């Protein structure tokens, strides 16, 4: 099934073409625009920016895929969660295309797509050995969720953030230390040269009994307090602070994950796989921590085959649409006029 | 539930009810209060049940003068000065308790708040009862300030109504602020925990000791401005460093508005919209932290239309768009809230004003 997919849920304007789980093209504006060549192009959240870019990115995705738009089987579109005015731009474009070429339009949840992004493949004959129920962890700028995936479309949120998302906390810590965009990846770079044992920060919610939530507000507070207490900071101190913050932020994830894995296993649910997704999944340190945990717990860790699938992108939307609809008729998706954005869409909500 | 008009005859009826451990609603110079015998554990438990809050959250008690207060708390010099200067009046003075009241009235750290209301009916009741009574406001937690009986009765469940034994109706009270709460137990200087009509300094400033205090403060501000709902747009502009508790404030605000979803930071998506199930309150939660041209981008989020629609908006990192917000203040009530880190790790100094 060939799908043209679009995502304008946040900063990125993204369009892709997929065939089943294979990614044929995956265009995101910040990487294909001319400005990007000069480095550090800042994505913008404005509705106008999405409107200006959407046609360019769509054409690029089609061209890169080598597919004729008339030959696609369906269009997939992110309807939430995200910023309402930004979501609207993608939905309008998707409806226009669906009408023009008489194609079904499949509404997709952006977080669900991150959750299943490990299913994306680079060639048609790759078969992934993932069995359900499985665990899924989405860590990004806007989301921090641990999910029990009973099947495609059947989810149980085991833990989610009650204040900041992991990626947001990393960005904020980076800005406090004086670094600009993109904060999280700059933090990762400088943390490499830092020690973790010079400073100490409290692990969030260690005394939480249920361990069914993530929280970064207390860690941010402790970090500001620590930073302001230290009067003269040299370069090495900044590296050390960066590493301490990043490490504590990740240990919190591991801590909750450990607890929830045991809890799930105690319920005699046989879990063999952990699926990772979201922008923070590009961080090498968290990947290593998760690999170690998975070895201990006898789980297989699945990470999308390319970094591009972790950041906001549309190929994951196409793959998600395929996985959700592969066993059903697409007839109902021709009735797409009622599709609307849902900025607060969550995994329990029905998209359609 | 029995209802009597407030008059001389009602004094005796009230005292008899208190003696039986009953829950009595009566007026004070601030709001209607929920009074029980502060030395009767069963009565206090009943009050906890009505207020719908966990056991162990303290209640202040009402007495008639400093001598009566001395039986229940230790009054230091700081406290003595405040009693002399400000009481009777709309002030709650927190001192070290002497553990003479029922369990659950004093705070976990052993402190106790004392009120001496400047209200004749109240004073007559306590004089005749000869024991202190609780002076907590007569609404359930996070509900409307009780200035008249309907404020109370329209916002509670049938189960809660059944807990009320007696109501002394004094009509609609003037819309005064709840009492100013002053803690005298820490230093030589008194610390304001809640700002009412009485001010110790020339600006509005309170000390929050934890996230719960900050949320509670947001509730107080909501209750103060709630009457503008539907008449004017209401903007809570939040300023303060990372990790200081801006989102905590919005969590408290949402709770006070009857929203039961989990409020999270909108830094990434820029805007979240929450709606309450019961009261049809809608809260727009915005954040400028990630905006590149915040003044332009905040307008892009249709803020002008939101103001025309008389929306309720909370904006984090408002200082990044202070000029834009100043222009909003022509059509909206803008409450500027500044949160600063305090001396101790969990302390926050919160100041506010309408611009």
Structural account:
The complex is a heterodimer of chains A (352) and B (355). Chain A has helices at residues 29-32, 47-65, 84-101, 110-115, 166-176, 183-191, 217-229, 235-266, 284-297, 315-325, and strands spanning 2-7, 14-19, 22-28, 74-80, 105-109, 134-139, 144-151, 154-161, 213-214, 273-277, 300-302. Chain A is an alpha/beta fold and 352 residues long. Chain A has 2 domains: 2-122 and 308-334, 2-Layer Sandwich (Nucleotidyltransferase, domain 5); 134-304, ATPase, nucleotide binding domain (Nucleotidyltransferase, domain 5, 2-Layer Sandwich). A 6-stranded mixed sheet of chain A has the order 9-8-7-6-10-11. In chain A, strands 3-2-1-4-5 form a 5-stranded mixed sheet, sandwiched between helices. In chain A, strand 1 and strand 2 (14-19) form a beta hairpin. Chain A is globular, with a radius of gyration of 20 Å. Chain A starts with a strand and ends in a 27-residue tail after the last helix. Residues 36-41 of chain A have low confidence and may be disordered. With 355 residues, chain B is of the alpha/beta class. Helix content of chain B is 30%, strand content 25%. Chain B has helices spanning 8-19, 41-51, 66-70, 77-86, 120-129, 149-153, 158-163, 211-225, 246-256, 294-300, 303-308, 322-328, and strands at residues 2-5, 24-26, 33-35, 61-62, 73-74, 89-97, 111-116, 133-134, 136-137, 166-169, 180-183, 191-194, 205-208, 233-239, 271-275, 282-287, 312-316, 332-341, 348-354. In chain B, strands 4, 5, 6, 7, 8, 11 and 12 form a 7-stranded mixed sheet that branches. Chain B has a 7-stranded mixed sheet with strand order 13-19-18-14-17-16-15, sandwiched between helices. In chain B, helix 8 crosses helix 9. The longest helix of chain B has 15 residues, at 211-225. The relative contact order of chain B is 0.13. The A-B interface holds A 10, 42, 44-48, 81-85, 141-142, 160-165, 167-168, 171-172, 175-176, 217-225, 228, 343-344 and B 211, 241-245, 247-248, 262, 264-265, 267-273, 289-292, 296-297, 300-302, 341, 345.
């Amino acid at each position: 099934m060939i799908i043209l997919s679009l995502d304008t849920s946040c900063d990125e304007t993204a369009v892709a073409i997929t065939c089943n789980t294979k990614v044929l093209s995956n265009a995101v504006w910040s990487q294909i625009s001319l400005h990007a060549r000069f480095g550090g192009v800042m994505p913008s959240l404005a509705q106008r920016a999405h409107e200006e870019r959407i046609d360019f990115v769509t054409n690029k995705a089609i061209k890169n895929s080598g597919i004729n738009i008339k030959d696609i089987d369906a269009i997939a579109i992110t309807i939430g969660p995200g910023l309402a005015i930004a979501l609207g731009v993608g939905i309008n474009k998707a409806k226009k295309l669906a009408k023009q070429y008489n194609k079904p339009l499949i509404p997709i949840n952006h977080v669900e797509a991150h959750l299943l992004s490990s299913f994306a493949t680079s060639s048609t004959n790759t078969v992934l050995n993932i069995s359900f129920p499985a665990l899924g962890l989405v860590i990004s700028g806007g989301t921090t969720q641990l999910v029990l995936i009973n099947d495609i479309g059947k989810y149980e949120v085991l833990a989610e953030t009650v204040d900041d998302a992991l990626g947001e906390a990393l960005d904020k810590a980076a800005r406090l230390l004086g670094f600009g965009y993109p904060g999280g990846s700059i933090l990762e770079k400088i943390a490499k040269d830092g020690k973790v044992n010079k400073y100490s920060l409290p692990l969030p919610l260690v005394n939480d009994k249920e361990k069914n939530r993530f929280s970064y507000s207390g860690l941010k507070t402790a970090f500001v307090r620590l930073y302001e207490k230290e009067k003269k900071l040299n370069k090495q101190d900044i590296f050390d602070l960066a590493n301490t913050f990043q490490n504590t932020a990740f240990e919190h994830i591991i801590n909750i994950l450990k607890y929830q894995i045991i809890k799930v296993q105690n319920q005699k649910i046989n879990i063999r796989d952990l699926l990772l997704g979201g922008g923070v999944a590009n961080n090498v340190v968290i990947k290593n921590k998760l690999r170690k945990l998975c070895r201990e717990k006898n789980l297989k860790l699945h990470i999308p085959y390319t970094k591009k699938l972790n950041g906001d992108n549309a190929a994951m939307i196409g793959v998600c649409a395929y996985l959700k609809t592969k066993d059903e008729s697409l007839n109902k998706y021709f009735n797409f006029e009622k599709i609307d954005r849902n900025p607060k869409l969550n995994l329990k909500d029905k998209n359609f | 539930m029995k209802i009597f008009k407030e008059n001389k005859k009602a004094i005796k009826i009230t005292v008899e009810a208190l003696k039986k451990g009953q829950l009595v609603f009566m007026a004070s110079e601030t709001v209607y209060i929920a009074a029980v015998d502060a030395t009767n554990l069963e009565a206090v438990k009943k009050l906890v049940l009505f207020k719908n809050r966990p056991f162990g959250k303290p209640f202040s008690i009402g007495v008639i003068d400093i001598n009566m207060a001395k039986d229940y708390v230790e009054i230091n010099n700081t406290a003595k000065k405040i009693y002399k200067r400000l009481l009777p009046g709309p002030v709650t003075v927190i001192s070290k308790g002497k553990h003479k009241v029922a369990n659950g009235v004093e705070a976990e750290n052993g402190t106790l708040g004392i009120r001496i209301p400047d209200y004749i009916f109240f004073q007559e009741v306590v004089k005749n009862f000869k024991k202190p009574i609780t002076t907590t406001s007569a609404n359930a937690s996070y509900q409307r300030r009780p200035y008249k009986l309907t404020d109370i009765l329209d916002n509670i469940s049938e189960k809660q109504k059944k807990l009320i034994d007696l109501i002394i109706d004094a009509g609609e009270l003037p819309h005064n602020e709840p009492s100013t709460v002053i803690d005298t137990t820490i230093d030589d200087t008194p610390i304001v925990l809640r700002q009412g009509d009485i001010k110790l300094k020339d600006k509005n400033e309170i000390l929050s000791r934890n996230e719960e205090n900050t949320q509670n403060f947001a509730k107080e501000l909501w209750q103060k401005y709630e009457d503008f709902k539907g008449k004017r747009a209401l903007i809570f502009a939040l300023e303060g460093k990372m990790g200081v508790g801006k989102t905590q404030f919005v969590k408290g605000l949402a709770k006070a508005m009857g929203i039961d979803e989990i409020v999270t930071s909108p830094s990434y998506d820029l805007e979240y919209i929450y709606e309450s199930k019961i009261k049809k309150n809608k809260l727009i939660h915005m954040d400028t932290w990630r905006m590149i041209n915040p003044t332009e981008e905040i307008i892009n989020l249709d803020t002008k239309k939101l103001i025309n629609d008389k929306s309720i908006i909370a904006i984090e990192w408002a200082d990044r768009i202070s000029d834009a917000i100043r222009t909003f203040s022509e059509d909206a009530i803008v409450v500027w809230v500044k949160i600063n880190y305090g001396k101790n790790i969990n302390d926050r100094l919160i100041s506010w004003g309408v611009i």
